[in-house]
Design brief:
CATH superfamily of the largest domain: Glucose Permease (Domain IIA)
Oligomer: single chain
Helix content: 40-55%
CATH topology of the largest domain: Glucose Permease (Domain IIA)
Number of helices: 7
Shape: elongated
CATH architecture of the largest domain: Distorted Sandwich
Largest sheet: 8 strands, antiparallel
Radius of gyration: 45 Å
Structural class: alpha+beta
Number of domains: 3
Order of helices and strands: HEHHHEHHEEEEEEEEEEEH
Strand content: 15-25%
Length: 306
């Protein structure tokens, strides 16, 4: 009996070892399954990481698109139509032109001309940076229009001659503007004038009214005259000088001969003024301070002044 008992115990131990080994083997066999499960679990994690990594790229693309749209809006060219009482610095301030009136003038020099003060109601100005293609097209267009300008100049001369013929009086003298009433008269006292009095007469007319040479003569100056704004001074054939001030546009230049009734410019509100009108003087010299009564002068030449 004791011998049999001893014999069974070792067998039992071997059986336990086998179970232990089998258990270990089972655990070992389970490891690949766990590894496989881990491998499958990594796939969705990788997709998520890729999605997160791609987000900044999409955002940058959207930001670039938005920036391009903003740039396009900034570079848009707008058209502004000049109104009565406008001048370049005023327009530049109101329209927020970067670079001020000088930039505005530079962009529109072909339309305005050599004198930045000579703008008139209805003139179209471009506001904003011009594209290179537009500049090129404009250049080509201006070249194409050279023959047209020549024809237009001939037509203008013909019109001026017609106007001169239509307004010529028997005395050889005429009013500087047709159908106007006199506002401020000659020699009216006031501190607003540097001489202490009004050196001419003011004809009340809206901006853009045609102004005429009161008699035949030669233009001695045409351009900016400080407080007078844009002005024209004509030496008349009798030796007196006629001065026209606050013009919005000049139609003559220094050295040019004119006939009675010929258009010399358009009325306006340039210089030191409170509103559009023609300031008209008759002088014994071309200079300020040599004024005489312009109404009396015209009447002495047979011109009826209301």
């Amino acid at each position: 009996m004791p011998a049999k008992g001893k014999h069974r115990r070792p067998k039992s131990q071997r059986f336990a070892r086998s179970i232990a080994v089998a258990g270990t083997g089972g655990a070992a066999l389970a490891l690949p399954l766990m590894g496989a499960t881990g491998a499958h679990a990594a796939t969705p994690q990788s997709v998520s990481e890729k999605a997160v990594q791609s987000l900044p790229v999409t955002q940058k693309s959207a930001e670039k698109t938005a920036a391009k749209k903003d740039a396009a809006k900034t570079s848009t060219v707008r058209t502004y139509s000049v109104r009565v009482g406008d001048y370049l610095s005023k327009i530049a301030d109101e329209q927020n032109v970067s670079g001020g009136w000088k930039k505005l003038y530079s962009d529109n020099r072909s339309a305005i001309g050599d004198d930045p003060s000579l703008i008139h109601p209805g003139l179209k100005l471009s506001i904003g940076k011009k594209a290179k293609t537009e500049s090129s097209a404009s250049s080509s267009s201006s070249k194409a229009k050279k023959p047209e300008k020549t024809a237009s100049k001939s037509s203008s001369n013909s019109t001026a001659a017609t106007q001169s013929s239509a307004t010529t009086s028997s005395s050889g003298y005429t009013l500087p503007v047709t159908g106007a009433t006199i506002g401020t008269g000659y020699r009216v006292a006031g501190s607003m004038w540097s001489s202490g009095y009004h050196t001419g007469v003011d004809f009340v007319v809206p901006t853009g009214t045609s102004l005429k040479a009161v008699a035949a003569g030669t233009v001695v100056s045409a351009g900016w005259g400080g407080a007078y704004g844009n002005q024209v001074v004509i030496k008349l054939n009798d030796g007196y000088y006629a001065q026209y001030a606050h013009l919005s546009q000049l139609s003559v230049s220094a050295g040019q001969t004119v006939t009675e009734g010929q258009q010399i410019g358009l009325s306006g509100a340039t210089g030191n003024v409170t509103g559009p009108h023609l300031h008209f003087e008759i002088r014994t010299t071309p200079d300020y301070g040599s004024d005489v009564d312009p109404v009396a002068y015209l009447r002495s030449k047979g011109v009826a002044v209301g």
